[in-house]
Design a protein that fits this description.
Mean pLDDT: 86
Number of helices: 8
Keywords: Mitochondrion, Transit peptide
Helix content: 25-40%
Strand order of the largest sheet: 1-6-5-4-3-2
Main location: mitochondrion
GO cellular component, one term: mitochondrion
Low-confidence stretches: 1-19
Pfam family, one: ATP11
Strand content: 25-35%
InterPro entries: ATP11 (IPR010591)
Length: 171
């Protein structure tokens, strides 16, 4: 049975359980913000990536101000986007919905089409712009919710979303 057939015929077992909407943490709940603010941008980037990427189901990234400015503008103008995800058996599509330009939920496109209000998230992204004014950085944290989504696939999704939303065309 192909991935597309499996995904279209029934929600995965993990998606049929009760799900509590993820609440984004504030940056000061993840790191010691006063200590972070003392560091140079290069050191902040290094510490953030090390801290987030050591977690098996999390992906960290850092956006410089020029990239963030374009990304944020495009995210507000066009908050939804479809991202293809490659699997060994083929592809499936995820739909992203960016909320307030700082929070992004991603789910399987067919789940969203079936019931947009109850589609379970596959991945949740948070954008922390707390250091934008002082260090010209926005920190990104993506958490994989779906057990069937690998970290490598999540990294590819984050990369695609950043490339599209950070381009002048905007996606």
């Amino acid at each position: 049975m192909s991935l597309l057939t499996r995904c279209c015929t029934a929600a995965p077992k993990w998606a049929r359980t009760t799900f509590t909407m993820p609440i984004p943490k504030k940056l000061n709940e993840i790191v010691r913000l006063p200590l972070f603010e003392r560091e140079e941008p290069v050191k902040i980037r290094s510490m953030w990536l090390e801290h987030i990427n050591e977690k098996p189901r999390s992906i960290g990234a850092v956006m410089a101000k020029p990239e963030w400015d374009v990304f944020h503008k495009n995210a507000l103008a066009c908050p939804m986007f479809i991202v293809p995800v490659q699997k060994p058996e083929g592809y499936f599509n995820m739909v992203s919905q960016i909320q307030d330009g700082k929070y992004c939920l991603m789910t399987f496109l067919d789940h969203y089409r079936s019931n947009p209000t109850e589609a379970p998230p596959f991945m949740v992204l948070n954008f922390y712009d707390d250091l934008l004014k002082s260090k010209e950085l926005t920190l990104l944290r993506a958490d994989l919710v779906a057990p069937d989504l690998s970290k490598a696939e999540g990294e590819a999704v984050v990369r695609t979303l950043r490339e599209v939303k950070s381009s002048r065309a905007g996606g």
